[in-house]
User: Fold these one by one.
Assistant:
Number 1:
Amino acid sequence: MTPAIETSGLVKTFGPVRALDGLDLSVGSGEIHGFLGPNGAGKSTTIRILLGLMRATAGRATLLGGDPWSDATALHRRLAYVPGDVELWPNLTGGEAIDLLGRLRGGIDAGRRDELIAAFQLNPTKKGRTYSKGNRQKVALVAAFASDVELLILDEPTSGLDPLMEAVFQEIVAGLKDAGRTVLLSSHILAQVEKLADRVSIIRQGRIVQAGTLAELRHLTRTIVEAETAAPVTGLPALPGVHDATASGARVRFSVDAEHLDAAVKHLGAFGIRALTSHPPTLEELMLRHYGNERHYGNEGHYGDGAAA
Amino acid sequence: MSATMTRGGALTGTGILLGLALRRDRIKLPAWTLIIALFVPYFATVAARTNPTPEALRRTMDMMDVPMLRLFTGPSYGTGDLTVQRYLIAVYFVEFLLGAALMNILLIARHTRAEEQSGRAELIRAAVVGRHAPLTAALLLSVITTAVLAGLMTVTAIGAGLPAGSALLFAVATAATGLVFAGVTAVSVQLTEHARAAAGIAGGVLGVVWVIRGAGAVQDTEGGGLTWLSPLGWSQLTRVLADERWWPLGLSAALTAVLVTAAYALAARRDLGAGVVATRSGPASAPGWLRSPAALSLRLQRSSILWWSGSLVAGGLVFGALAGSMRDGLATDFLDAGPDVLSGYLSLMVVGMSFIVGIFAILAVTRLRTEEVRGRIAPLLTTPTSRWAWLGSSLLVTAAAAVTLLALSGLALGAGAALSLGDGGYVGELTGAVLARAPEILLLLAITLALYGFAPRAVAVAWAVLAYGGFVRFWATDLPAALKALSLFDHIPRMPIEGFTPTPLVTLTVLAAGVTLLGLYGFRRRDLDG
Ligand SMILES: Nc1ncnc2c1ncn2[C@@H]1O[C@H](COP(=O)(O)OP(=O)(O)O)[C@@H](O)[C@H]1O
Ligand SMILES: [Mg+2]
């Protein structure tokens, strides 16, 4: 399957600031791709290059098989974009802005538009300058979702939405996935991406430090195990891959690297397991490990790319 | 400061906020006050230069003493024994009143409603800051600024030859009007949720009292009954340089007090961020024609174009109507008219109209820049709308609007002249004369666009192009030809005093087209900001 988005060695500098520093991003057709990274990592810059709003300093980017800069107009027929900070025309109403953007994109499905407005509980009769950040975002989301396009590029689209609206958003994006659309969803809110994304790329300081399916990423990292045993457990900290082991009486808690999970659980078995819980790391833990311990994982940063190909 | 903090009253934190406001406006307010004050010697010099002899001054004054012009300048006093200083007060006082009022309108709107609208006031009010501290700080800032203005104006007026006492009265009377409008704006910002609307309401009030004062001056040279109904009138009714009196300023002070009290009362009754008047809602869907970048551009510029049209038509009618009084003879250096005073006057008005439309053109492109940095064109350019299409259609709409404005102002100028001179031929002649200046405006527009395309941060340089043109045309008429040729506005013949020649029109139009293409090319290859 040809990827919907492919960049290699993308570099963008703003004077002395190196916003993108050799970014390799690959988004397959029909997938929901989480684009995760802290503030200032380069997510918006990447997206603006993909949209032809900026030109890369170096490197190559392909979007829907075309060049984002020179084929911008043709490509934009096939995509919709929601910026993180939506600005509307102060004296146009939200409804007017939705219609205008939809028409410029080649037409808008009026029925779907009204459904979406209802779903997001948006008042389309208010002037742009009177909307809150969340409501401006809803306007842009309705305009994007109401147009019939293959690719949606959403840059932190729900940072202003309340949890209820966030749920509406997730439902709609899940529907897009069923319809075979591709979605690039940038975020620093991990829980959001976790629920929706097929694959995830993590960006830090202008580079992708890890990419793959959630399962693959989790596989890379540690599982947290808690157990209650018949006899007190001994010798746990000495096992390879076991970290942060703590014991109180018959209870132990530790984290273990994925490849050593089997050995660790077998070790526990010798002490008579009464209760055992384990949970995979959340994306927070995953990112924290990356940002907290770069040297350790830096070399394996592109593990997921190979596995997913 | 800690004493006020612990008291925890409605005014807590006023001092800190005032300090912040002074710091934020450390350039703006000195600039406003200084520029207004410097207009005193400037107008005095212009008056003296254009009327080199007492006889010339007398003639000009008599010419101005017609109801139509008193609407703009009056009431006036002591002009029987005319001096340049009395002429200055009689003709230009209103401009200083308008300046002081505008300064205060913008100042209060900026420091109260604009802060609430941006959400910054929320941050501030959540700190240890009393309910009334922001409004109080803004009002104090306006008092300080207006006092500085009065001080500077006293000095410059003494410099322009006014006795110290009269200079002080002139300055304080100007300040009094300024403070009345600080009060008006303090009320209007309570009414609407938007700073611009609040400033617009205050500006509307200013316009109304300006007309009332003028209507009083039309009734009577020294101000009829209507003048007493206008705060601008009160300042002029102090009769500076005639039998001077301070007490009309008591009316200004009383009105200011009433307005400020009302503002505090309204502020206490509303929520932060809310207005007393609720915002109206608009249509839930866009009209059918709003479907292209050109339509959007027209929609965004619509009210601005209407406003410009109205002002230019009004101005054109008035300036055209003045042609009648010009015919009776006014030979001055300023008009550079040679023997034919009337044609000279009309040519000057034609050129003036073109300059004003030039302001419109530059502002329109500046607006595009604002759209860009505010992030409002990225959503458009990520639809199939290309950069060519977006900038090209915005440009076309602006160019068409500029040409329309030229045509309208020419028509109005011609209609005014035709009425006052009793010769219908002026309508066609002056419309043609103003329209013939379109190529210079198009070239100015193209240059502004090229700046926007290549060096968007430097769009303001276009003002220098316009200002240089004005400088060459109005003040430096004896400059070397090469320097004159650099001005965009010295190529097209000044009709009706000069005859029509097509060559410069064609040259400027071709240049404009070339520079426009260059600008579009520049915009296509640069990164978008915002
Ligand atoms: N127009 C610009 N000029 C200068 N620096 C910029 C510009 N845009 C982004 N940057 C810088 O590039 C880096 C990446 O920014 P951005 O892509 O907005 O990050 P993110 O969207 O991940 O929060 C930041 O350090 C930011 O300050
Ligand atoms: Mg961003």
Number 2:
Amino acid sequence: MMNKINDRSRNLGDYSVGADDAMIICRCEEITKGDIRQAVHAGMFTLTEIRRYLRTGMGLCQGQTCGRLIKGIVARELGVSPLDLEPAVSRAPMRPIEMKVLGNER
Amino acid sequence: MKNNADIIIIGSGVIGNAAAYYLAKKGCSVIVLEKSESIGNGGSSRNGGGVRQSGRDKRELPLAMYGIKNIWPTLSEELDMDVEYYQQGNLRLGKTEAHRNILSGLTKNAADGGLNVRMIDGEEARAICPYLSEEVTGASWCPTDGHANPMLTTLAYYRKARQLGVRFITGEGVQEIRKIRGKARQVVTQNAVYEGETIILAAGYESREIASQLGIDIPMTQALLEVLVTEALPPMFYQMLGTAAADFYGHQSTHGSFVFGGSSGFEGVNRDNGTPTTASITASCICRGIMKYFPMLEEAKIVRSWAGWMDVCADMVPVISPVEEVPGLIIAAAFSGHGFGIAPTVGLLLSEMATAKTTTLDLSAFRYDRFKAKI
Ligand SMILES: Cc1cc2nc3c(=O)[nH]c(=O)nc-3n(C[C@H](O)[C@H](O)[C@H](O)COP(=O)(O)OP(=O)(O)OC[C@H]3O[C@@H](n4cnc5c(N)ncnc54)[C@H](O)[C@@H]3O)c2cc1C
């Protein structure tokens, strides 16, 4: 897949505080809508960058609950369609697994 | 928007981003071109976060020591963002006599280079980190080593450089550097041609392909490593850890999770489809390594794992060098799996190399033309 060209200096307009900015979006890591919107204004334009910057979707549920919500918030802040945003990569293991179980040889 | 700048940087890894920041601070105009859709999506966001001096090649030691003394301690303040830097020492652990011999050798080299590092016994290691198993019978101890969060460091340099006016463009893979009147000047992508007085090539392994079109070959290969991360656990210890046997390395992060890196030994023959992918056997193997040293972690849950590529140079240290045959071109690549800890120093030195005649530290050991056949 060809990556889309994305100029990080384009003007998103000023950040204005939203009425529901305090709403928690990622419950595992307790990240609010305002945190996510501000991250976009700080230059985090992809879901992968947002995740690395804020830890959204890096908690125990691995983004299964908040993934779609975050996509919507980021897309709106950037003024693009959610369909234009690549989801962040899912990582193994699919469920948290204890070291002694994962490390079991057979 | 204009496609010219004083400096064009190819690659937005931690090296490219740090160079961009220090150049912007000097008042240069900078454009950074990144092939991936995301900033810092290469090794820079995938590494183990070690900010070490111990265990370094002696050529690299001055770079590591300079950064740990002068840049890392205040980096979070400088970049207005917490990069989660901890300076609580590095323990490289051993269980057997053979391990202790390896550690003594490394320790002697580093101490000869002026570093405060020494051998300690198992008891002293457990006094520093009480969670270590009785199997640990010796360690090397460097109290000024540490770790930081690589994703945040890479993004912090990006964010601050962007605030200072650096133009970053992602999804913009560079195909070619073109010379004009004998000097590197144009950077060509699928979409556009960019022009700069100086071009810094910091595209990791892919720097080889781009440089080779100008007749410069950097002898390097790609090698994969994996990393896994646990759920958040209560704070336990903040030393950076490694082992003589290279079973694993890692640390606990601010978040509470442990980040551990390692390999299975099959990396050279793994199948991949051109992306760094985890193999099913590796995380298990790393877990077995960890539990021998830290039995109390056996119930820690692994929540995520990933893989990353290192750009490994033939002699295991990077190329950080202007290119005589191609004036205007600077190469910064082949960091060989230990470029994160020295990235702030390297970024600073690159900004000097691009704007002045001299650099704060001597970089002649990192020249692009140092490679000679064995006979
Ligand atoms: C698993 C792992 C663990 C590691 N652990 C440590 C550690 O504990 N301590 C330490 O110091 N180091 C560690 N390293 C090494 C460290 O991550 C790297 O040395 C460092 O990140 C190199 O930074 P870079 O900017 O040179 O490379 P990269 O981060 O790879 O950046 C190069 C960038 O160039 C881009 N690019 C490639 N081709 C093109 C093109 N044609 N046009 C435009 N852009 C292009 C890439 O997409 C990439 O973003 C580790 C590495 C790995 C993989």
Number 3:
Amino acid sequence: MNLAHRWHVRLALLLLLATLLFGLLAGLAYMYPAIGQAIAFKKLRPAHVSAALFWIITGASAAVVHHRTEAFRLPRPTRSHAAFVAIWAGSIVAILVAYALNRFGGREYWEFPPLLGVPVLVAWLLFMVDHFRAWRHRPADPPLYVWMWTTGVVFFLITFLEQNLWQIPWFRNTYMRELTVQWKSNGAMVGAWNQMIYGSALYLMTRIGGDDGIARGPKAFAFWFLGLSNLMFNWGHHIYSAPTAGWIRHTAYAISMAEWVLLIDIIRGFKAKLAENRRLGHLTTYRFLVTAELWVFLNLALALLMSFPFLNRYTHGTHVTVAHAMGTTVGINTMILLGSLSWMLRIDQAGAARRWMERGRLLAVYSLLVFWVALIVAGLIKGWRMTALGITDHTRLMAPVDPVLQVFVVAGFGVAAGLAMAALPLLAASFKPLPAVVPVPERPAATTVERP
Amino acid sequence: MWQRKVLAFLGAAFVAGTWFAYRGADTGGSADAQVRRGMDVWQANNCVACHQLYGLGGYMGPDLTDVITMRGDAHVRAFVQHGTQRMPAHPLTEAELDDLVAFLAWVDASGQGRVPDSAVHWTGTFILEP
Ligand code: HEM
């Protein structure tokens, strides 16, 4: 790891900590109007969501750089990578300052003034220069994760540009087009960072498990194509309830339903996972990856249900959506990234750090379960009252929902504490020299590995 | 390499899908200058942090897709100018308020915020007239 890469990692971890802080404050401001008057929810929500998305993208790009360097046996990242880190960090700070000064661009998720998108774009182009320099050194017949990293890197650019098309007047001629430009790009961008992150998880699994086969072969690629179709065509589920052209809705519905295959595959692979767990369960990285798999399962089940339009009527526009958003970004993306960072920083060779990470992981997982269920329950109550009972007065509508949201905020403290316990040792490790690599246990002799 | 073929096919479908999605989204009234100014007011004040349109946005406040039909523009002006215990007051000029109301009326005219029972098809999807 060179200096620029270390700062890349530190920036990601600092953003995670900022996400947690702003999330807690936003939760408090949401529940208690008196706090909301002191620190505006209007600023906290964008600060929280932008920090969260930047944590994920910064972490994902740091993972790609590191794993790519290992996988391609490359020289270190180049100077354009260092320039990316500097400009990227500067843009993120500028964005948070803009929120503090009440300057907004007011688009969902990316609520910063559009001018600040320019340095973000420049930084990403530099990142791509570095990536495609490395790409030339890819192995012949590259394993799937190499494809995933590259599609993620390219699609981030495409979706970022698409998000900004609204500045061309034609895209706001009608409200349906305005809605389409916003949700088509947002929906696909999630897919873009998932490519980078799932690619890294797949890479780590091949390294830890010592089996390259899971990243090759027709089944792996078939699932990847399903994921790509999802990225490209499933955005329609965000706007099911808007009167857009029917094919957009029907395509999204069909692609969502194809994803049942993934759920069934996870259930079928369950037994094999248990055996693998006995062999590798002592590794921090592995534990975080398995935690993420549990959350893939839970979120996929929820997402599949929400994707039936007739059920979506009750969940759309409620906290079920928030459960889906945070369930995936915390439960899946954050867990994989923490796993990847613990691999990069060789946490298993650092005793105390490793124990803190493990305690943090457990606290975060159990709290997240309560957090997630509370959001779903809150959303279902609201959805039922809104759709079945037809209540339109907001105060009356929310009266029975608010107590459930208090549970969510309390559980949020557990999530934040747990993730901070995992992130702080990583941050500390990023300032120390890396310990020497200890080889991963061999495949067949596996069962003899003792739990420390 | 079958993988490359599938990838090329998906890429082409993506480009075509993008084209049709945008070109086809020309239903509903088109935005005049006032509506466009109103959109800018909506964005500059980050109303989306707390409100949804078609169910999309932050969840602290209510969905505003149908607010003009349901509550009328005087109600909207009053809320925006004075705020409530939870919603901050927004000191906008009269002209900005007019623009904001024009924007919300334009959104309102584009469709209904909630899908009516009658639009649910037996396959589970919705049949909505664009
Ligand atoms: C790594 C940790 C976290 C990530 C990645 C994350 C991510 C997100 C995302 C993507 C959203 C947007 C959801 C949507 O609009 O559908 C969101 C909203 C929110 N999050 Fe988090 N979050 C994290 C932790 C927390 C914590 C610990 C709390 C504390 C209670 C929290 C409280 C909130 C609140 C109040 C909202 C706004 C919901 C609304 O619009 O009403 N988050 N978060």
